[in-house]
Amino acid sequence: MKPSDGGQPAADGPLDEVDLGILGDIRQAFHEADPMPPDLPERIRFSLALRDLEVEVARLAAEEDRQVLAARGAEQSRTVTFDSDSLTIMIRIDSNSDGTARVDGWLAPPQRREIEMKTTADSLSVASDEQGRFAFARVPRGTAQLIVRPAEHGPGEHGQSGSGRSVVTPALIL
Amino acid sequence: MDERRSVAVPASQADRGARIASLVTAARGGSDDALGQIVTELSPLLWQVARAAGLSSADAEDVLQTVWLRLVSHLDGIRTSSALTAWLVVTTRREAWRVRAAARRQFPADQDWLAALPDTEPGGEERVVIDDQRRALWAAIRLLSPRCQELLRIIAFVSRPDYSAVAAELGIPRGSVGPTRGRCLAKLRATLAAGPEGSAR
To answer: How far is Cα B18 from Cα A125, in angstroms, rounded to an integer?
Structure first.
């Protein structure tokens, strides 16, 4: 039996243009009905870039936070909590009038750490105070990730400095 | 076997295979950029693999993260685009089953992802013909066995030179999609050809 227009196509016939057309239609149908979130590859690239570091990975404290995390450019302020073995990181994201985001954060237990905000454009660094508070006044919108590093001990510094490991959050959308 | 209608692999697809292979080599050498390009290229396929296995969107995202992290330690054994795609597909599917089995213990979920898909959205007048074809396609897909539905959904997102390697990894016993059409595609095509709207292609 010929695998062409006349009659039934044979299962052992070679793939032809019609088959490839049907596969193309299937692809298009599923692409429209159930598309991959467009920013997923970017988030995966982010987490792969950290693979070599000796880090603790913080997880979302609650499943509801997942929607909050993905609410790009939301007008209202959003609060998300991340948990790792040694640290809880809570952040509040607000909008600045110039379109950037403001991020206020708290570490528990409270401690001085170096906090890095990695964005696709560049990397911002601040330090938390002894109450564990930190703030990024202006962060470009887009994908970002927090890395909480051990604080460098200055002379005469006191206070709990936490463990020696860095803690990273999953990528978040500002 | 009638070879006349079989289609040669276009040069652009052969180029793609060579490009992926060189990206794999660069990624093995530690290039995050090369690895990132592979992620961008193949994640849409893996998304379909995870969703076809019945995962929620959130679980599918987690599975993809896991699979890509795991690839990094498996790059040594991978040399070609076909080997890479087959490894990613089978690892994603296996990880998806594991996650699904764990979720099932908590609440018995229905696994009919096809039923969960939205109906074709209403479109303008000019879309009517396309919508009719789309409806006929969904109807024909629903008539297939779950196994065939999954296989075709996955294969449709695979680059053509990699069909055979992926079909082999999916454990298609015979008539795999690749050099031949295979049982699933033959049945779908026959159903479409017999459609009432003359939606034969």
So the answer is: 41
Q: What is the pLDDT of residues B21-73, one digit of tens each?
A: 999 999 998 888 999 999 999 999 999 999 999 898 888 998 998 899 889 88
User: Tell me, what's the ipTM?
Assistant: 0.83
The DSSP bridge partners found for residue A95 are A101
CA nearest neighbour of A173 among A46, A54, A16: A46
CB atoms within 10 A of CB A107: 22
Contact call for B185 and A22, based on CB within 8 A: yes
Within 8 A by CB and 6+ apart from A107, the residues are: A87, A88, A89, A113, A128, A132, A133, A134, A148
What would the pLDDT profile of B100-115 be if each residue is shown by its tens digit? 887 765 554 444 556 6
Number of CB atoms found within 10 A of residue B117's CB: 17
**For chain A, what are the domain ranges?**
58-173
Residues 6+ apart with CB under 8 A from A28: none
Q: Which of A8, A30, A63 sits opposite B153 (nearest CB)?
A: A30
The residue of chain B nearest to residue A40, with distances taken between CA atoms, is B61
What is residue B92's three-state secondary structure?
Answer: helix
Q: Give the pTM.
A: 0.67
Can you give the residue ranges of every domain in chain B?
11-193
